[in-house]
Amino acid sequence: MFTSLISFLVLTGFYASFGTGQPLVPALIIMGDSVVDAGNNNLRLTLVKANFPPYGRDFLAHTATGRFSNGKLAIDFTAENLGFTSYPVAYLSQDAANETNLLTGANFASGASGYHDGTSLLYNAISLTQQVENYKEYQSKVTSMVGRDKANEIFKGAIHLLSTGSSDFLQSYYINPILNAIVTPDRFSDRLMRFYSTFIQNMYDLGARRIGVTSLPPLGCLPAAITMFGGIGSNTCVERLNRDAVSFNTKLNNTSVNLANKLPGLKLVVFDIYNPLLNMVMKPEENGFFESRRACCGTGTVETSFLCNALSVGTCSNATSYVFWDGFHPSEAANPISLLSRPLKALTIHHLFVHSSISLSITGLRIFKDENMFKRLISFLVLTGFYTSFGTSQPLVPALLIMGDSVVDAGNNNLRLTLVKANFPPYGRDFLAHTATGRFSNGKLAIDFTAENLGFTSYPVAYLSQDAANETNLLTGANFASGASGYHDGTSLLYNAISLTQQVENYKEYQSKVTSMVGRDKANEIFKGAIHLLSTGSSDFLQSYYINPILNAIVAPDRFSDRLMRFYSTFIQNMYDLGARRIGVTSLPPLGCLPAAITMFGGIGSNTCVERLNRDAVSFNTKLNNTSVNLANKLPGLKLVVFDIYNPLLNMVMKPEENGFFESRRACCGTGTVETSFLCNALSVGTCSNATSYVFWDGFHPSEAANQMGDEDVDGKCRMSACSSAKLFLFMVPLVLVSGFVFVNIGPKCPTSFLTSLSTTHISPPLLLSSPSLPPAPAPSLQAAKEVSLPTSALSTKVESVQGDRNRTIQLNPINITLVSNNVTSTASSELMKKRVTKKIDKIEFELQKARVAIKAASMDDPVDDPDYVPIGPMYWNAKVFHRSYLEMEKQFKIFVYKEGDPPLFHDGPCKSIYSMEGNFIYEMERDTHFRTNNPDKAHAFYLPLSVVKMVRYVYQRDSHDFGPIRRTVRDYIDLVSDRYPYWNRSIGADHFILSCHDWGPEASFSHPHLGQNSIRALCNANTSERFKPRKDVSIPEINLRTGSLKGLVGGPSPSIRPILAFFAGGVHGPVRPVLLQHWENKDKDISVHKYLPKGTSYPDMMRSSKFCLCPSGYEVASPRIVEALYSGCVPVLINSGYVPPFSDVLNWRSFSVIVSVEDIPKLKTILTSISPRQYLKMYRRVLKVRRHFEVNSPAKRFDVFHMILHSIWVRRLNVRIREV
């Protein structure tokens, strides 16, 4: 918006230049709806308010002022950029009581207001007509303070901004069926144009001459609009709403042109916010966001106003990654972008629908949301080695095995002497060929949709049906479930159902049949790879425990659950013994909400859920999860998942309309109260004609429509359901994640996906389990005489040399170093690692291999929730992979610090100088308890705690030019630890590292040939022309801590109050700085370049006053100015040759800094001024985000510079595989 605003000011004759002490206009007047409301609704009797947390959590003092955002509104940034030192006060707030605050403007906007006063009336908001009346009152107050003439100058010179219209459509027109029926959207827009014209005329009559009005945004792309009007399961913009917005905007523009021509002296500007917002929604990553379809608050689907509150479940921890804060309003992070690209967003709508998300309780793992369940299935299948690509003719798993009760019974009870059957109409009326197969539903079961999504062309046959007589049908699985079965065999006995114990016996028989067909080895592969699903437990409570008064009297529900847990444990153990390794089990549903349960246990006339039954189900589910965790930990290789179906079903029952249903308390069949099995028959009176409107088909079982709610397409999008609202039996949309990993090769996929390696060597990684190996290639030698080619990443990251674009790729395949005994002369080998892990080093390498696989898989996963920080945005080459790598480092990485050596040369270093990183890292490692281990056999890496700075001070003879004493000190230390320990010789130093910030650090590292050639060197002086190798070495930041702390170093003003374009001050040394001073010293007021700062000028203040900070190299390529710029919020400009910026394996420096070659120094101003305000603001925001990675903390904090250095070392270590033979 600011770009357009400046154009507007130029046209109106008010804009001269930035940097003056006065605002560019005398006042800023705001009118409209909640997108610009700053608190006028706070004291009104209306639901449309935002004066409570989490609104305002990122605003000044973390205060909820009534702004519908987590922080500043777009108009707040507008006020800043116009030069105002405060924001226009809400006219009805306490701030307006001090009338002097009104001299620079006021905000009259009200959430839920519109062009049509009837829209405001619906929500008791302040109508646009009343806002004009309040403006008249405001004019009287200003006139009384400054006099008529001065007041008229203020009103005439002020900018008046109007942002409204969305509420007219979203909160009035679209939700009013009568209005919809008699008035087309086009005619409705014409009506609004009349109100708009009246508003402009009234404001003109009151003296306003400069008016800006925003267009409608793409209404169909607001998260809440997608939820409300997009149809069940939609996650894309609603095109009809967008078409209406485009039509309205065309009329708005034409009407504005006519008004401007009609009213002399009127400067009327229409700001296009449609296209900029559409761009952010469609291309979030290009605009610095991760999420544009869901909002930050709550589930991100509809929550706004009172629905977005401190208790909203799922609210994100970092709103900067989201375009939308709530279902209708942009986040603070989106507002500055909108400011620079003309989108002051009019995104207002308030609705009372709320969606809740299902969570999967993954035993031993973590909680996941249902909206990406199929993606997680693919992750699971990739990890387990079964998935190759979509579109193949083969199923994604070899077989699907089903056990349980009537929810998953496909017809096993048909031939049994039992009342619990479903092989007659109206069961199956919507199934294939309208056939009653024995499924307890009108159509497909949830497991049928699961089979489809897994790629099976037929459903698992009922094991006791005629279909199973053709034994070839059994090769892809079978269904053993029986209606009225339970964990307790006594439950089945009551109804002559097939007990769970007998189902296991039938499974054994099934195994024998399969084995006879394909042989033992192939059969074992099928059983091991198959997904086994168990769904039972409801019958134990509803058809046994609750209806047995004696059992009720002597056994409490909690004790009954304990008894069932013993049967469950026995079942899992038996299945494990039979070779099952992938098992999913469902929780109990909310038992008290089933129609039959309400009828039987809810009391006469009751139509609400029976809470005591629900409490029992919750208690059981907790025990089920805990028991499953214990079993998964106890049984090696078992992947055991507990699926939560309690909350999704409860959500559908309590909020049927949100989930696409009409009825959730009665079932479709018969009266809908108790009918099940034989009671639900062709003669049942009252059976509904359309079961798709019902959650339940009969008194206990879901309809096909409810079962399909969990079904997803292979692209991860829901086919019929609203993904954001969790659906019943999503647990049947497939078994997705498991506790533990199965490993596959991690060969290169994209050279720039995470760490871009500088090695082109392909080495076959070890073959683990069923993973295929990559084609072998010659292994490089690790002899001391030649350069060792050690690829840098199991992660695929980008490393970029600043001079030019010399990008090279790091392959994801670690080098195998095979050693014979402990002989130093060793060779690299491409032999495959043995499957059995026996030696200590093999165990370590096995752990690293698990990490490599987990990291590789993260590229197709969703960002992981993190209480401290979630890396997101273009500042990272691959944020998801980096985050997973970081978490794996925290979980596994162990470092042994050699105790040999005495201070000050060892275990000591400077903490208050330009070389402060040496001392800070040494001291942090010395006191660390998380990464440091005292057992070298458990270490992944070994730290040589020497300080080159201290050696220069205490060993080197000043002005002697004799480097020999330092070389001998380093060499002697390596000889000492290699003689005393076996670890150096084992890897020829490849898993050892040093850290140095002194200019002589690189030279010191070559005191020992293997240290320089093989070891990981963490260096400030990361100069590729001086043998720095990004494929194995680590570039670390040079940080000048004069006091030893960050106090007073971090922070700076917003871009709007940084008057200097670019700044540098420093001594003339090295080849680059003389060129810079020659061209720019005292040559241009915008490029402030100094050899020495004028007396009384503060260096830190100059950096904080500058938009760009020039960082030329000196004698060496590294410069502390880079970090000082980041600390100050100043975009760094790197001017050097051959320098690899810190953490380039993770950070995309070109996204938040400017890289200028030495040859382009004369073009510096042209380069910097060619960066648009919008792009600069993006870079500024990214600087603020990434500087956490450069902050020095004591003690260290997650993601700070200490941990980033460790992560870079961790990445290099992942690329060396060591074996002993």
From TrEMBL:
Chain ranges passing through the membrane: 728-747
Keyword Signal: yes
Domain Exostosin GT47 span(s) in chain numbering: 890-1171
Keyword Ligase (UniProt): no
InterPro entries: Exostosin_GT47, GDSL, GDSL_lipolytic_enzyme, Lipase_GDSL_AS, SGNH_hydro_sf, SGNH_plant_lipase-like
PROSITE patterns: LIPASE_GDSL_SER
Keywords of the record: Membrane, Signal, Transmembrane, Transmembrane helix
Position of the signal peptide: 1-21
Domain of life: Eukaryota
UniProt cross-references to PANTHER family, sorted A to Z: GDSL ESTERASE/LIPASE EXL3, GENOME ASSEMBLY, CHROMOSOME: A03
UniProt family annotation: Belongs to the 'GDSL' lipolytic enzyme family.
Protein name: Exostosin GT47 domain-containing protein
Species of origin: Brassica napus
